[in-house]
Design a protein that fits this description.
The protein is mainly beta. It has helices at 2-14, 38-47; strands at residues 27-29, 35-37, 51-52, 59-60, 77-82, 87-92, 97-102, 107-112, 114-116, 119-120, 122-128, 134-140, 148-154, 160-166, 175-178, 183-190, 196-202, 208-212, 221-226, 232-236, 241-245, 251-256, 268-273, 279-283, 288-292, 300-301, 310-311, 315-319. The longest helix has 13 residues, at 2-14. Keywords: Metal-binding, Repeat, Zinc, Zinc-finger.
Length: 321
């Protein structure tokens, strides 16, 4: 009986994810040889931090790329998204293309960010919609004309499905998709003596639904995400903060503020949420990633390379420290 019980325990452990402690859902193999759920690995990839395998305690890192124009190399990689199938799509702005990798960092394919004919977009950001297609935002630069902004929908192989024009501003912009309402959310900064940022909500055909954020003093909103409840989260590079709105565009709160202390930000860029609703922000000039609890106060502080650490303030931080 003892042997049978031990065998059953061993079998259960062999089919259980060491991160979520549930039975495997689409298991993926780590570099060390152990497996975790694909969704759990996606959360870790989106965080962009090192972590230790819970089974062998070996540090795990998914690192790929390098500067250049060759296959698997980048020039100004600005945006990233992950599909349900576990493919990583990177907006390689300087090379005017989207590159696709596995969750382990193996190159799969690439396609040019064509708008029409020979015209190619310089992609600022990329997002996945509810049907598994990609939305890419960026601009075209002509030899004799001013640049023009576009939002383009591609399938996963790079075929253009639809597109619509965006106002030319000269500032970087981000894109996210509210899959529940099938709205395309795009950030925009108006270049004037007094910078004004906003979020534009479109239908896939390019029809403007509403504009969000004009009353809260946004300056340079770039990256944007939508959480599972439909809340809109925008990182403002010049205000050094994150703005949060509900699914109807009503302002909820802002957090962050300029500085190096925990919970502060310096020119935040990329932003996403994990399955638990935690908010993960790329804190650019502080050279770190900060994780905020979905309710903002009281959470844990994460040091670089550690998956669990100690209670210390209101953010989880991973960086060069």
């Amino acid at each position: 009986m003892a042997a049978t019980s031990s065998l059953g325990t061993h079998f259960k452990e062999s089919v259980t994810c060491s991160i979520c402690l549930e039975l495997f859902t689409r298991p993926k193999v780590l570099p060390c040889g152990h497996s975790v759920c694909q969704d759990c690995l996606q959360d870790l990839v989106r965080m962009g931090v090192d972590f230790k395998c819970a089974n062998c305690r070996q540090p795990q890192r998914v690192t790929f790329g390098g500067e250049g124009s060759g296959t698997g190399q980048f020039r100004d990689p600005f945006g990233v998204t992950v599909s349900d199938e576990g493919e990583i799509f990177v907006a390689d702005r300087g090379n005017q293309r989207i590159q696709v990798f596995t969750l382990q960092g193996t190159f799969v394919r690439q396609f040019p960010t064509v708008v029409s004919g020979e015209e190619k977009l310089k992609p600022d950001d990329v997002a996945m919609d509810g049907e598994g297609n990609l939305w890419v935002v960026g601009d075209l630069w002509g030899m004799d004309t001013d640049f023009v902004g576009f939002a383009v929908q591609y399938n996963k192989q790079g075929t253009v499905l639809r597109k619509f024009d965006l106002q030319a501003t000269g500032w970087g912009r981000g894109v996210a998709v509210d899959t529940r309402r099938n709205h395309i959310l795009i950030t925009q900064t108006k270049d004037s003596s007094n910078l004004q940022g906003e979020v534009l909500l479109f239908r896939p055909d390019g029809t403007l639904v509403r504009t969000v954020g004009q009353q809260q003093g946004m300056k340079y909103p770039w990256y944007i995400t939508v959480d599972r409840e439909g809340n809109i989260l925008v990182s403002d590079c010049l205000n050094n903060c994150v703005f949060v709105y509900n699914e109807d565009g009503q302002f909820l709160l802002r957090f962050g503020g300029h500085g190096r202390d925990e919970g502060q930000l310096k020119h935040p860029r990329g932003i996403c949420t994990d399955r638990a609703g935690n908010i993960i922000v790329a804190d650019w000039l502080n050279c770190r990633v900060e994780m905020f609890d979905r309710k903002i106060p009281e959470t844990h502080h994460y040091r670089h390379g550690e998956a669990m650490c100690y209670c210390h303030g209101n953010t989880r931080t991973a960086g060069s420290g």
